[in-house]
Design a protein that fits this description.
The complex is a heterodimer of chains A (about 270) and B (about 270). Chain A has about 270 residues and is an all-alpha fold. Chain A has 10 helices and no strands. Chain B has about 270 residues and is α/β, with parallel strands linked by helices. Helix content of chain B is about 40%, strand content about 20%. Chain B contains 10 helices and 10 strands. In chain B, the strands form 2 sheets. Chain B has a 6-stranded mixed beta sheet, with helices on both faces. Chain B has a 4-stranded antiparallel beta sheet with strand order 2-1-4-5. The longest helix of chain B is centred in the C-terminal third of the chain and has 26 residues. The chains are: A mainly alpha (about 270), B alpha/beta (about 270). At the A-B interface, helix 7 and helix 8 of A face helix 2 and helix 4 of B.
Protein backbone atom coordinates (compact mmCIF):
# COMPACT_ATOMS: atom_id res chain seq x y z
CA UNK A 1 0.00 0.00 0.00
CA UNK A 2 1.52 3.25 -1.06
CA UNK A 3 0.96 6.75 0.30
CA UNK A 4 -1.27 8.92 -1.92
CA UNK A 5 0.12 12.43 -2.37
CA UNK A 6 -2.23 15.35 -3.04
CA UNK A 7 -2.95 16.21 -6.67
CA UNK A 8 -3.75 19.86 -5.99
CA UNK A 9 -1.50 22.60 -4.71
CA UNK A 10 -2.19 26.27 -4.08
CA UNK A 11 0.42 28.91 -3.49
CA UNK A 12 0.15 29.89 0.18
CA UNK A 13 -0.63 33.61 0.77
CA UNK A 14 2.63 35.53 1.19
CA UNK A 15 1.82 38.95 2.64
CA UNK A 16 -1.21 38.56 4.93
CA UNK A 17 -1.55 35.07 6.31
CA UNK A 18 -4.94 35.43 7.95
CA UNK A 19 -7.88 34.93 5.59
CA UNK A 20 -10.22 37.33 7.44
CA UNK A 21 -7.68 40.12 7.49
CA UNK A 22 -7.00 39.61 3.83
CA UNK A 23 -10.67 40.03 2.91
CA UNK A 24 -11.03 43.03 5.25
CA UNK A 25 -8.05 44.78 3.63
CA UNK A 26 -9.40 44.10 0.13
CA UNK A 27 -12.85 45.51 1.01
CA UNK A 28 -11.17 48.50 2.68
CA UNK A 29 -9.24 49.33 -0.50
CA UNK A 30 -12.41 49.21 -2.64
CA UNK A 31 -14.37 51.40 -0.20
CA UNK A 32 -11.55 53.95 -0.08
CA UNK A 33 -11.36 54.08 -3.86
CA UNK A 34 -15.13 54.67 -4.21
CA UNK A 35 -15.13 57.41 -1.56
CA UNK A 36 -12.03 59.08 -3.05
CA UNK A 37 -13.54 59.14 -6.55
CA UNK A 38 -16.72 60.60 -5.07
CA UNK A 39 -14.82 63.66 -3.76
CA UNK A 40 -13.39 64.58 -7.16
CA UNK A 41 -15.66 67.34 -8.45
CA UNK A 42 -15.64 67.59 -12.23
CA UNK A 43 -16.86 70.76 -13.89
CA UNK A 44 -17.99 69.45 -17.28
CA UNK A 45 -18.46 72.89 -18.90
CA UNK A 46 -14.84 73.73 -18.16
CA UNK A 47 -13.75 70.42 -19.55
CA UNK A 48 -15.64 71.27 -22.75
CA UNK A 49 -13.99 74.69 -23.08
CA UNK A 50 -10.61 73.15 -22.36
CA UNK A 51 -11.10 70.65 -25.15
CA UNK A 52 -11.50 73.48 -27.61
CA UNK A 53 -8.22 75.07 -26.47
CA UNK A 54 -6.59 71.66 -26.60
CA UNK A 55 -7.76 71.30 -30.16
CA UNK A 56 -5.99 74.53 -31.12
CA UNK A 57 -2.90 73.25 -29.38
CA UNK A 58 -2.99 69.99 -31.33
CA UNK A 59 -3.46 71.96 -34.54
CA UNK A 60 -0.40 74.03 -33.61
CA UNK A 61 1.49 70.81 -33.21
CA UNK A 62 0.39 69.60 -36.62
CA UNK A 63 1.64 72.80 -38.21
CA UNK A 64 4.71 73.59 -36.13
CA UNK A 65 6.30 76.94 -36.90
CA UNK A 66 10.04 76.67 -36.60
CA UNK A 67 10.86 79.84 -38.52
CA UNK A 68 9.14 82.92 -37.13
CA UNK A 69 10.64 82.54 -33.63
CA UNK A 70 13.77 80.69 -34.71
CA UNK A 71 16.12 83.21 -33.10
CA UNK A 72 14.45 82.80 -29.69
CA UNK A 73 14.30 79.06 -30.08
CA UNK A 74 17.96 78.66 -31.00
CA UNK A 75 19.07 80.98 -28.18
CA UNK A 76 16.96 78.98 -25.73
CA UNK A 77 18.36 75.72 -27.01
CA UNK A 78 21.97 76.82 -26.75
CA UNK A 79 21.30 78.12 -23.26
CA UNK A 80 19.70 74.84 -22.26
CA UNK A 81 22.48 72.71 -23.70
CA UNK A 82 25.16 74.84 -22.02
CA UNK A 83 23.29 74.64 -18.74
CA UNK A 84 22.95 70.87 -19.07
CA UNK A 85 26.58 70.21 -19.82
CA UNK A 86 28.11 72.57 -17.27
CA UNK A 87 25.77 71.53 -14.48
CA UNK A 88 26.43 67.84 -15.13
CA UNK A 89 30.20 68.33 -15.09
CA UNK A 90 30.15 70.47 -11.95
CA UNK A 91 27.54 68.29 -10.26
CA UNK A 92 29.47 65.07 -10.90
CA UNK A 93 32.73 66.67 -9.76
CA UNK A 94 31.13 67.64 -6.45
CA UNK A 95 29.26 64.32 -6.15
CA UNK A 96 32.35 62.13 -6.26
CA UNK A 97 33.87 63.22 -2.92
CA UNK A 98 30.43 63.34 -1.30
CA UNK A 99 29.60 59.87 -2.63
CA UNK A 100 32.87 58.48 -1.29
CA UNK A 101 32.18 60.09 2.07
CA UNK A 102 28.69 58.65 2.14
CA UNK A 103 29.86 55.04 1.72
CA UNK A 104 29.72 53.39 5.12
CA UNK A 105 32.42 50.84 4.34
CA UNK A 106 35.19 53.37 3.66
CA UNK A 107 34.24 56.57 5.49
CA UNK A 108 34.33 57.31 9.22
CA UNK A 109 30.92 57.65 10.88
CA UNK A 110 30.90 61.45 11.26
CA UNK A 111 31.83 62.10 7.64
CA UNK A 112 29.30 59.48 6.59
CA UNK A 113 26.55 61.30 8.51
CA UNK A 114 27.42 64.70 7.02
CA UNK A 115 27.54 63.39 3.45
CA UNK A 116 24.34 61.40 3.81
CA UNK A 117 22.58 64.53 5.10
CA UNK A 118 23.77 66.57 2.13
CA UNK A 119 22.41 63.85 -0.15
CA UNK A 120 19.12 63.72 1.75
CA UNK A 121 18.64 67.49 1.46
CA UNK A 122 19.44 67.49 -2.23
CA UNK A 123 17.03 64.63 -2.87
CA UNK A 124 14.25 66.01 -0.69
CA UNK A 125 14.02 69.27 -2.63
CA UNK A 126 12.48 68.85 -6.03
CA UNK A 127 14.14 70.66 -8.95
CA UNK A 128 11.28 73.13 -9.46
CA UNK A 129 11.28 74.18 -5.81
CA UNK A 130 15.03 74.82 -5.88
CA UNK A 131 14.68 76.63 -9.19
CA UNK A 132 11.99 78.97 -7.83
CA UNK A 133 14.17 79.66 -4.80
CA UNK A 134 17.35 80.27 -6.82
CA UNK A 135 15.55 82.42 -9.40
CA UNK A 136 14.35 84.57 -6.51
CA UNK A 137 17.95 84.76 -5.25
CA UNK A 138 19.90 85.30 -8.48
CA UNK A 139 17.26 86.62 -10.82
CA UNK A 140 15.88 85.18 -14.06
CA UNK A 141 18.19 83.41 -16.44
CA UNK A 142 20.35 80.37 -16.98
CA UNK A 143 22.65 80.91 -13.97
CA UNK A 144 19.85 79.96 -11.60
CA UNK A 145 19.14 76.97 -13.84
CA UNK A 146 22.76 75.90 -13.80
CA UNK A 147 22.85 76.02 -9.99
CA UNK A 148 19.58 74.14 -9.70
CA UNK A 149 20.68 71.30 -11.94
CA UNK A 150 24.11 71.04 -10.29
CA UNK A 151 22.47 70.77 -6.90
CA UNK A 152 20.02 68.12 -8.09
CA UNK A 153 22.85 66.18 -9.74
CA UNK A 154 24.68 65.94 -6.41
CA UNK A 155 21.79 64.15 -4.73
CA UNK A 156 21.40 61.74 -7.61
CA UNK A 157 25.01 60.82 -8.43
CA UNK A 158 26.37 60.92 -4.87
CA UNK A 159 23.67 58.59 -3.57
CA UNK A 160 23.98 56.03 -6.34
CA UNK A 161 27.78 56.17 -6.20
CA UNK A 162 27.77 55.69 -2.41
CA UNK A 163 25.42 52.71 -2.69
CA UNK A 164 27.65 51.28 -5.38
CA UNK A 165 30.78 51.69 -3.27
CA UNK A 166 29.05 49.95 -0.39
CA UNK A 167 28.52 46.94 -2.64
CA UNK A 168 32.09 46.50 -3.87
CA UNK A 169 33.85 43.20 -3.44
CA UNK A 170 35.38 43.60 -0.02
CA UNK A 171 38.08 41.00 -0.67
CA UNK A 172 39.78 43.22 -3.24
CA UNK A 173 39.88 46.15 -0.83
CA UNK A 174 41.15 43.88 1.92
CA UNK A 175 43.96 42.64 -0.31
CA UNK A 176 45.07 46.18 -1.14
CA UNK A 177 44.82 47.19 2.52
CA UNK A 178 47.00 44.20 3.46
CA UNK A 179 49.89 45.54 1.35
CA UNK A 180 50.19 48.53 3.67
CA UNK A 181 48.35 50.90 1.35
CA UNK A 182 46.96 54.16 2.72
CA UNK A 183 43.28 55.08 2.63
CA UNK A 184 43.69 57.10 -0.59
CA UNK A 185 45.55 54.25 -2.22
CA UNK A 186 42.81 51.79 -1.24
CA UNK A 187 40.24 54.12 -2.81
CA UNK A 188 42.33 54.53 -5.94
CA UNK A 189 43.36 50.88 -6.39
CA UNK A 190 40.49 48.83 -4.99
CA UNK A 191 37.37 51.00 -5.05
CA UNK A 192 37.75 53.13 -8.16
CA UNK A 193 38.27 50.26 -10.63
CA UNK A 194 35.18 48.55 -9.28
CA UNK A 195 32.82 51.54 -9.51
CA UNK A 196 34.21 53.52 -12.47
CA UNK A 197 32.12 51.98 -15.29
CA UNK A 198 28.96 52.58 -13.33
CA UNK A 199 29.95 56.14 -12.44
CA UNK A 200 30.45 56.95 -16.13
CA UNK A 201 27.12 55.33 -16.97
CA UNK A 202 25.32 57.30 -14.26
CA UNK A 203 26.88 60.57 -15.40
CA UNK A 204 25.67 60.03 -18.96
CA UNK A 205 22.24 59.14 -17.67
CA UNK A 206 22.22 62.28 -15.54
CA UNK A 207 23.21 64.32 -18.61
CA UNK A 208 20.00 63.45 -20.35
CA UNK A 209 17.92 63.89 -17.20
CA UNK A 210 19.42 67.37 -16.84
CA UNK A 211 18.44 68.33 -20.37
CA UNK A 212 14.85 67.31 -19.74
CA UNK A 213 14.83 69.13 -16.42
CA UNK A 214 16.29 72.25 -18.03
CA UNK A 215 13.13 72.48 -20.13
CA UNK A 216 10.96 72.19 -17.02
CA UNK A 217 12.77 74.66 -14.78
CA UNK A 218 12.86 77.20 -17.61
CA UNK A 219 9.13 77.58 -17.07
CA UNK A 220 9.71 78.99 -13.59
CA UNK A 221 12.26 81.45 -14.93
CA UNK A 222 15.54 79.58 -14.88
CA UNK A 223 16.34 80.28 -18.53
CA UNK A 224 16.87 77.88 -21.41
CA UNK A 225 14.41 76.35 -23.83
CA UNK A 226 11.79 76.13 -21.07
CA UNK A 227 11.67 79.89 -20.84
CA UNK A 228 11.21 80.16 -24.61
CA UNK A 229 8.42 77.57 -24.44
CA UNK A 230 6.73 79.47 -21.64
CA UNK A 231 6.86 82.72 -23.59
CA UNK A 232 5.43 81.05 -26.69
CA UNK A 233 2.51 79.61 -24.73
CA UNK A 234 1.69 82.89 -22.98
CA UNK A 235 1.64 84.63 -26.36
CA UNK A 236 -0.83 81.97 -27.62
CA UNK A 237 1.70 81.07 -30.33
CA UNK A 238 0.86 77.38 -30.22
CA UNK A 239 2.59 76.72 -33.53
CA UNK A 240 5.93 77.93 -32.14
CA UNK A 241 5.29 76.06 -28.89
CA UNK A 242 4.63 72.93 -30.93
CA UNK A 243 7.94 73.40 -32.73
CA UNK A 244 9.77 73.77 -29.40
CA UNK A 245 8.17 70.65 -27.96
CA UNK A 246 9.09 68.66 -31.07
CA UNK A 247 12.70 69.84 -30.78
CA UNK A 248 12.80 68.88 -27.09
CA UNK A 249 11.40 65.45 -27.86
CA UNK A 250 13.94 65.02 -30.64
CA UNK A 251 16.92 65.99 -28.50
CA UNK A 252 15.80 63.84 -25.57
CA UNK A 253 15.47 60.85 -27.89
CA UNK A 254 18.91 61.40 -29.38
CA UNK A 255 20.42 61.82 -25.90
CA UNK A 256 18.58 58.75 -24.62
CA UNK A 257 19.73 56.49 -27.41
CA UNK A 258 23.30 57.73 -27.56
CA UNK A 259 23.79 57.51 -23.81
CA UNK A 260 22.35 54.03 -23.60
CA UNK A 261 24.56 53.01 -26.51
CA UNK A 262 27.62 54.47 -24.77
CA UNK A 263 26.74 52.74 -21.50
CA UNK A 264 26.41 49.41 -23.26
CA UNK A 265 29.74 50.01 -24.96
CA UNK A 266 31.38 50.69 -21.59
CA UNK A 267 30.26 47.44 -19.97
CA UNK B 1 60.57 34.82 13.13
CA UNK B 2 56.94 35.18 14.13
CA UNK B 3 55.77 34.72 17.69
CA UNK B 4 52.11 34.66 18.66
CA UNK B 5 51.63 35.01 22.35
CA UNK B 6 48.25 34.20 23.91
CA UNK B 7 46.44 35.67 20.91
CA UNK B 8 42.68 35.94 21.44
CA UNK B 9 39.79 37.27 19.47
CA UNK B 10 36.21 37.63 20.59
CA UNK B 11 33.86 39.19 18.06
CA UNK B 12 31.36 41.87 19.07
CA UNK B 13 28.61 39.28 18.77
CA UNK B 14 30.25 37.42 21.63
CA UNK B 15 31.62 34.58 19.49
CA UNK B 16 35.07 33.55 20.53
CA UNK B 17 37.09 32.88 17.39
CA UNK B 18 40.49 32.45 19.00
CA UNK B 19 41.38 31.73 22.58
CA UNK B 20 44.88 31.88 23.87
CA UNK B 21 46.77 30.84 20.75
CA UNK B 22 50.55 30.74 21.21
CA UNK B 23 52.76 29.70 18.31
CA UNK B 24 56.29 30.31 17.10
CA UNK B 25 57.12 30.18 13.41
CA UNK B 26 60.90 30.27 12.80
CA UNK B 27 62.51 31.69 9.67
CA UNK B 28 61.97 29.54 6.60
CA UNK B 29 59.32 27.32 8.13
CA UNK B 30 56.12 26.58 6.26
CA UNK B 31 53.34 25.92 8.66
CA UNK B 32 49.99 24.52 7.61
CA UNK B 33 46.93 25.53 9.58
CA UNK B 34 44.13 22.99 9.39
CA UNK B 35 40.79 22.69 11.08
CA UNK B 36 37.08 22.57 10.38
CA UNK B 37 35.20 25.59 9.00
CA UNK B 38 34.70 28.16 11.72
CA UNK B 39 37.68 26.94 13.76
CA UNK B 40 39.29 30.37 13.48
CA UNK B 41 41.92 29.72 10.80
CA UNK B 42 40.99 32.79 8.80
CA UNK B 43 40.68 34.94 11.91
CA UNK B 44 44.11 33.79 13.09
CA UNK B 45 45.97 34.89 9.99
CA UNK B 46 43.96 38.13 9.76
CA UNK B 47 44.86 38.95 13.35
CA UNK B 48 48.53 38.83 12.41
CA UNK B 49 48.33 41.73 9.94
CA UNK B 50 45.38 43.17 11.84
CA UNK B 51 42.82 43.04 9.09
CA UNK B 52 40.95 41.72 12.11
CA UNK B 53 41.76 43.42 15.44
CA UNK B 54 42.78 40.86 18.06
CA UNK B 55 41.20 41.39 21.48
CA UNK B 56 44.15 40.11 23.44
CA UNK B 57 47.71 38.81 23.25
CA UNK B 58 50.78 39.75 21.26
CA UNK B 59 51.98 39.33 17.69
CA UNK B 60 55.76 39.68 17.46
CA UNK B 61 57.26 39.82 13.98
CA UNK B 62 61.03 40.00 14.30
CA UNK B 63 60.66 41.67 17.70
CA UNK B 64 58.07 44.29 16.72
CA UNK B 65 54.73 43.93 18.48
CA UNK B 66 52.07 44.50 15.84
CA UNK B 67 49.20 44.71 18.32
CA UNK B 68 48.65 48.25 19.54
CA UNK B 69 50.50 50.02 16.74
CA UNK B 70 49.09 53.31 15.49
CA UNK B 71 47.68 53.61 11.97
CA UNK B 72 50.87 54.80 10.30
CA UNK B 73 53.15 52.28 12.03
CA UNK B 74 50.66 49.53 11.26
CA UNK B 75 50.81 50.39 7.56
CA UNK B 76 54.58 50.30 7.66
CA UNK B 77 54.55 46.93 9.37
CA UNK B 78 51.97 45.52 6.96
CA UNK B 79 54.49 46.00 4.16
CA UNK B 80 56.57 43.28 5.81
CA UNK B 81 53.71 40.78 5.63
CA UNK B 82 52.63 39.44 2.27
CA UNK B 83 49.17 37.96 2.02
CA UNK B 84 47.72 35.55 -0.51
CA UNK B 85 43.99 35.08 -0.63
CA UNK B 86 41.31 32.55 -1.27
CA UNK B 87 39.65 33.39 -4.63
CA UNK B 88 42.79 35.46 -5.38
CA UNK B 89 41.30 38.86 -4.41
CA UNK B 90 42.92 40.54 -7.40
CA UNK B 91 41.47 43.84 -8.50
CA UNK B 92 39.72 42.43 -11.54
CA UNK B 93 39.55 45.54 -13.66
CA UNK B 94 43.21 46.46 -13.23
CA UNK B 95 45.96 44.99 -15.36
CA UNK B 96 48.16 42.19 -14.12
CA UNK B 97 51.04 44.67 -13.82
CA UNK B 98 48.99 47.08 -11.70
CA UNK B 99 48.01 44.22 -9.44
CA UNK B 100 51.64 43.23 -8.94
CA UNK B 101 52.71 46.85 -8.44
CA UNK B 102 49.98 47.29 -5.83
CA UNK B 103 52.30 45.25 -3.61
CA UNK B 104 54.49 48.38 -3.54
CA UNK B 105 51.74 50.74 -2.39
CA UNK B 106 53.05 50.83 1.16
CA UNK B 107 56.42 52.07 -0.10
CA UNK B 108 55.42 54.84 -2.50
CA UNK B 109 53.68 58.18 -1.96
CA UNK B 110 50.10 58.57 -3.15
CA UNK B 111 50.91 60.69 -6.21
CA UNK B 112 53.24 58.03 -7.60
CA UNK B 113 50.68 55.28 -7.19
CA UNK B 114 47.90 57.51 -8.56
CA UNK B 115 49.86 58.38 -11.70
CA UNK B 116 51.17 54.80 -11.94
CA UNK B 117 54.71 56.23 -11.87
CA UNK B 118 56.40 53.63 -9.76
CA UNK B 119 60.18 53.83 -9.21
CA UNK B 120 62.27 51.99 -11.80
CA UNK B 121 63.44 49.32 -9.35
CA UNK B 122 59.82 48.51 -8.42
CA UNK B 123 58.96 48.01 -12.08
CA UNK B 124 62.01 45.84 -12.68
CA UNK B 125 61.14 43.80 -9.61
CA UNK B 126 57.52 43.41 -10.79
CA UNK B 127 58.68 42.12 -14.18
CA UNK B 128 61.14 39.75 -12.52
CA UNK B 129 58.39 38.38 -10.27
CA UNK B 130 56.00 37.94 -13.17
CA UNK B 131 58.74 36.04 -14.95
CA UNK B 132 59.30 33.92 -11.83
CA UNK B 133 55.64 32.89 -11.69
CA UNK B 134 55.60 32.38 -15.46
CA UNK B 135 53.30 35.20 -16.50
CA UNK B 136 55.70 37.67 -18.13
CA UNK B 137 53.74 37.89 -21.38
CA UNK B 138 50.46 38.52 -19.52
CA UNK B 139 51.62 41.73 -17.83
CA UNK B 140 49.28 44.05 -19.74
CA UNK B 141 46.20 41.86 -19.65
CA UNK B 142 43.35 42.65 -17.33
CA UNK B 143 43.33 40.40 -14.27
CA UNK B 144 39.87 39.05 -15.06
CA UNK B 145 41.14 37.70 -18.38
CA UNK B 146 43.30 35.09 -16.64
CA UNK B 147 42.46 31.55 -15.52
CA UNK B 148 42.22 30.59 -11.85
CA UNK B 149 45.73 29.22 -11.57
CA UNK B 150 47.19 32.23 -13.38
CA UNK B 151 45.30 34.62 -11.11
CA UNK B 152 46.67 32.95 -8.02
CA UNK B 153 50.17 33.31 -9.51
CA UNK B 154 49.52 37.04 -9.84
CA UNK B 155 48.39 36.98 -6.20
CA UNK B 156 51.69 35.38 -5.25
CA UNK B 157 53.67 37.94 -7.27
CA UNK B 158 51.75 40.78 -5.59
CA UNK B 159 52.58 39.45 -2.14
CA UNK B 160 56.25 39.02 -3.07
CA UNK B 161 56.44 42.52 -4.52
CA UNK B 162 56.15 43.73 -0.93
CA UNK B 163 59.51 42.10 -0.25
CA UNK B 164 57.88 40.50 2.79
CA UNK B 165 59.40 38.85 5.84
CA UNK B 166 56.35 36.64 6.33
CA UNK B 167 53.71 35.17 4.07
CA UNK B 168 50.13 34.68 5.18
CA UNK B 169 48.30 32.37 2.85
CA UNK B 170 44.54 31.95 3.15
CA UNK B 171 43.17 28.85 1.41
CA UNK B 172 45.32 29.36 -1.69
CA UNK B 173 43.85 26.41 -3.57
CA UNK B 174 40.20 26.54 -2.47
CA UNK B 175 38.88 27.22 -5.95
CA UNK B 176 41.46 25.39 -8.04
CA UNK B 177 41.43 21.91 -9.54
CA UNK B 178 43.66 19.23 -7.94
CA UNK B 179 46.47 19.52 -10.46
CA UNK B 180 46.60 23.33 -10.43
CA UNK B 181 46.38 23.21 -6.63
CA UNK B 182 49.50 21.12 -6.46
CA UNK B 183 51.33 23.37 -8.92
CA UNK B 184 50.45 26.42 -6.85
CA UNK B 185 51.50 24.73 -3.61
CA UNK B 186 54.78 23.65 -5.19
CA UNK B 187 55.43 27.20 -6.40
CA UNK B 188 54.74 28.58 -2.93
CA UNK B 189 57.08 26.08 -1.30
CA UNK B 190 59.86 26.81 -3.80
CA UNK B 191 59.54 30.54 -3.34
CA UNK B 192 59.57 30.31 0.42
CA UNK B 193 62.66 28.11 0.23
CA UNK B 194 64.42 30.53 -2.16
CA UNK B 195 63.88 33.45 0.16
CA UNK B 196 63.93 31.73 3.52
CA UNK B 197 60.43 33.07 4.08
CA UNK B 198 58.28 31.75 6.89
CA UNK B 199 54.68 31.13 5.89
CA UNK B 200 51.41 30.29 7.52
CA UNK B 201 49.10 28.48 5.13
CA UNK B 202 45.42 27.97 5.89
CA UNK B 203 44.36 24.87 4.13
CA UNK B 204 41.40 22.57 4.41
CA UNK B 205 42.65 19.86 2.13
CA UNK B 206 44.39 17.54 4.62
CA UNK B 207 46.27 15.34 2.11
CA UNK B 208 47.56 18.48 0.38
CA UNK B 209 48.73 19.82 3.73
CA UNK B 210 50.48 16.57 4.55
CA UNK B 211 52.15 16.49 1.17
CA UNK B 212 53.58 20.02 1.28
CA UNK B 213 53.82 21.33 4.85
CA UNK B 214 56.80 20.99 7.17
CA UNK B 215 54.67 21.48 10.23
CA UNK B 216 50.97 21.24 10.82
CA UNK B 217 48.91 23.04 13.43
CA UNK B 218 45.37 21.87 14.01
CA UNK B 219 42.82 24.38 15.21
CA UNK B 220 39.52 23.47 16.75
CA UNK B 221 37.08 26.05 18.14
CA UNK B 222 39.82 28.65 18.35
CA UNK B 223 42.34 26.48 20.23
CA UNK B 224 45.47 24.71 19.08
CA UNK B 225 44.76 20.99 19.42
CA UNK B 226 47.60 19.61 17.30
CA UNK B 227 51.10 20.83 16.55
CA UNK B 228 53.64 18.62 14.88
CA UNK B 229 55.17 17.29 11.67
CA UNK B 230 52.78 15.88 9.04
CA UNK B 231 53.63 12.23 9.69
CA UNK B 232 52.36 12.56 13.27
CA UNK B 233 48.96 13.53 11.91
CA UNK B 234 47.37 10.18 12.65
CA UNK B 235 43.78 9.11 12.53
CA UNK B 236 43.44 9.99 16.20
CA UNK B 237 44.92 13.43 15.66
CA UNK B 238 42.50 14.09 12.80
CA UNK B 239 39.62 12.99 14.99
CA UNK B 240 40.68 15.48 17.69
CA UNK B 241 40.74 18.24 15.10
CA UNK B 242 37.72 17.47 12.98
CA UNK B 243 35.65 14.96 14.92
CA UNK B 244 34.74 11.37 14.04
CA UNK B 245 35.10 10.38 10.39
CA UNK B 246 36.38 7.40 8.43
CA UNK B 247 39.85 8.79 7.71
CA UNK B 248 41.18 5.62 6.17
CA UNK B 249 38.55 5.63 3.45
CA UNK B 250 39.45 9.25 2.68
CA UNK B 251 43.15 8.46 2.53
CA UNK B 252 42.49 5.45 0.37
CA UNK B 253 40.55 7.69 -2.00
CA UNK B 254 43.48 10.02 -2.11
CA UNK B 255 45.90 7.17 -2.70
CA UNK B 256 43.73 6.03 -5.58
CA UNK B 257 43.85 9.50 -7.00
CA UNK B 258 47.62 9.77 -6.73
CA UNK B 259 47.97 6.28 -8.21
CA UNK B 260 45.81 7.39 -11.14
CA UNK B 261 47.90 10.54 -11.50
CA UNK B 262 51.14 8.52 -11.46
CA UNK B 263 49.68 6.15 -14.03
CA UNK B 264 48.71 9.04 -16.29
CA UNK B 265 52.19 10.50 -15.91
CA UNK B 266 53.83 7.22 -16.90
CA UNK B 267 51.63 6.92 -19.95
CA UNK B 268 52.40 10.47 -20.95
CA UNK B 269 56.10 9.80 -20.51
CA UNK B 270 55.77 6.70 -22.68
CA UNK B 271 54.08 8.79 -25.37
CA UNK B 272 56.83 11.40 -25.32
CA UNK B 273 59.50 8.72 -25.70
Amino acid sequence: MSITYPTRWKRPPQIIRDRHWRIAVQIGIVVYLVLALGTVDVNWTRVYEGLERGQRFVLGFLQPDFTSRWRDISNGLIESLTMTLTSTVVGVAISVPIGIGAARNIAPVWIYRICRSIIAISRALQEIIIAIFLVAMFGFGPFAGFLTLSFATIGFIAKLLADDIEEIEEAQAEAIRATGASWWQVVNYAVQPQVMPRLIGLSLYRLDINFRESAVIGIVGAGGIGATLNTAISRYEYDSAGAILLIIIGIVMVAEYSSSYLRKFLQ
Amino acid sequence: MLILDALSKTYKTGDTALSDVSLTVPKGQIMGLIGPSGAGKSTLIRCINRLVEPTGGKVLLNDVDLVGLGKRELRQQRRRIGMIFQEYALVERLTVMENVLSGRLGYVPFWRSYLRRFPAEDITRAYALLDRVGLLEHADKRADALSGGQRQRVGIARALAQDPELLLVDEPTASLDPKTSRQIMRLLIEICAERGLPAIVNIHDVPLAQQFMQRIVGLRAGRVVFDGPPDLLTQDALTTIYGEEDWNAMRKGDEEQSAAEADARERLAALVV
